[in-house]
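Internal ticket #5521
Category: modeling
Description: The requester needs a full-assembly model to guide mutagenesis choices. All entity lines are attached below as received. Residue total reported by intake: 652.
Assigned to: D.W.
Attached entities:
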Amino acid sequence: MDNTGCGIHAVHHLFLIWLSVYPLCSQGSWMWLGITSVGVPEKLGCAHLPLSHKQKELCARKPHLLPSVKEGARLGITECQTQFRHERWNCSTRRDPNVFGYELTSGTKETAFIHAVMAAGLVHAVTRSCSAGNMTECSCDTSLLGSGSPTEGWHWGGCSDDIAFGTSFSRRFIDSAAKNTSTRGEEALLIMKQHNSEAGRQAVAKTMLTDCRCHGVSGSCAVKTCWRTMAAFERVGAYLKDRYETSVHVVDRSKRKVRRKDKEQRHVPITKDELIFFNKSPNYCLEDRRLGVTGTRGRKCNRTSAGPDGCNLLCCGRGYNTHVVRHVERCECKFVWCCYVRCRRCETMNDMHTCK
Amino acid sequence: MKSLASLSLWRIIILILPLVSLGQTFEYGWPDNYDKPPQCVDIPVDLRLCQGVGYHQMLLPNLLEHESMAEVKQQAGSWVPLLHKNCDPGTQLLLCSLFAPVCMERPIYPCRRLCENVRDGCSPIMAAFGFPWPHILTCDKFPQDDMCINTPNDTSTSEPNGHPPVCPPCDNEMKMDVILDHMCASEFAIKTKIQEVKRENMDRKVTLQKKKRTIKMGTLKKKDLKKLTLYLKNGADCPCTQLDNTRNTYLIMGRKVDKQYLLTGIHKWDKSNREFKKTMKKLKSHKCPAYENVFK
């Protein structure tokens, strides 16, 4: 982490007060860009963002990539919160530059998922920016053009997503962040971060799909054009959630090679798309302000569910409170020609359960 | 190079899902994406498929994942000849609800019943021209509740006809728009006389005279032109006054389906008709929509 150049230039008064509580230079992560308000990173400038020294250099050299980095961070955080919205740890963020707090450095499965989904979000956002023509150094993947299967009636065309540039940028931006580590714990965390970030990038590659468009006469498929495209990011998130559920506990003492902690499985290789962790997760039941664990008190739960969102599991056996909530929503909507939608207002009284 | 990167995000969700069981409902809505949302734009005057549909603004991209107006126009153009056939009162409404959807907070799809009525009324005519009912108009994927587009006065009464329907390729107005639309929808067009008409299974086999002049060559080759035989698809018993009159010269249009040449349009070559003369003059400068240039 960059410990030099801590001068603070004039910024908004609120930010000045806030910065005095959380100095940007002493800690923080690029992921903060995903939760900050519109325009703030541009106002602060590269030198004052919570980036590593190398990241600041990259930011200064390629300022046009800052919107993609911000969007990638937002994608990653939003997807993490979507995938974990019913879990005890629900990927909640803090407003300080550390963003995830304990989970960012705990070496747990949650850390693994965070690194993977954030790296994937960066690949996704940068690649989309390439395909949209927003960047000069990258564009569509043209290697497929001209080929296809004329006998089957389709050919490559359109704009195939080229994830090579996004992947490469994600590697440069994330993996070069911290190179100088001294303690063993830091080194293990770095290895874990690099492995899991790469797994996130692989998730984007593995979920790519072929999209085709029929544009023959009268909607026929006599003429068909196909292109390769990234899946919607929620599919990448779901893919990584599966990897999270089956992530691999590794030995944290390895110097060079990552090895499984399970002695009987020690020589089974760890594949590129597996997530790794070296610390067991806490149960996330009770609030731990020091660690930044929010606990599950006050969380909404599902009384009839046996899954992770059920009251028994989510509330960790502490029980739940029940409130009656009145919902007013539109119902029995009807489209009226032409052109508006007419709905009735329906009131329902529902029980809402929250953890004690 | 046009960017199509966001196309997958706009794909209609149920198109990539397994076959839907009856009663299962989907939440139609905009896909989750971080691109700009669909824009509300005026229906252009040259989107002829949707002139007079009943509203004036449409969403772009539309519900068929067409991203640019050029793509919408190009793909909609081949449907205009079907409108001329008047096979169902809801044809334009069904097509335009997808090609030029109404501007609403969330997309409004055509009702399944509207789609089924149009399909039942129009697919026999499309079959006569060698077109199956296309995948993009599969009726099962459209909603059955009230949040969908139906014909404003949905009467299920059918109009009784006293005479059998005319063969679709023979049922044409002598109007420039109609002829030009059919010319574009056809692969080739020639000026010639009819030598012989014979029934063959469900079709009618039309043998042309040796003397021919090519108006539109298309995919036709010179050697094929010499011994060209056209088929009136499913036209064994429907009336076609043009084929009954072998003394006249005709403008004959067709297209190739598998190994057969299908008759897609036949007009009397009537130099004394002012509309016909105007059409032939216009034909020299008329540009059909090109199907290749939207995708590169």
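Resolution: model delivered.
Comment from assignee: The mean pLDDT of chain A is 82.
Ticket closed.
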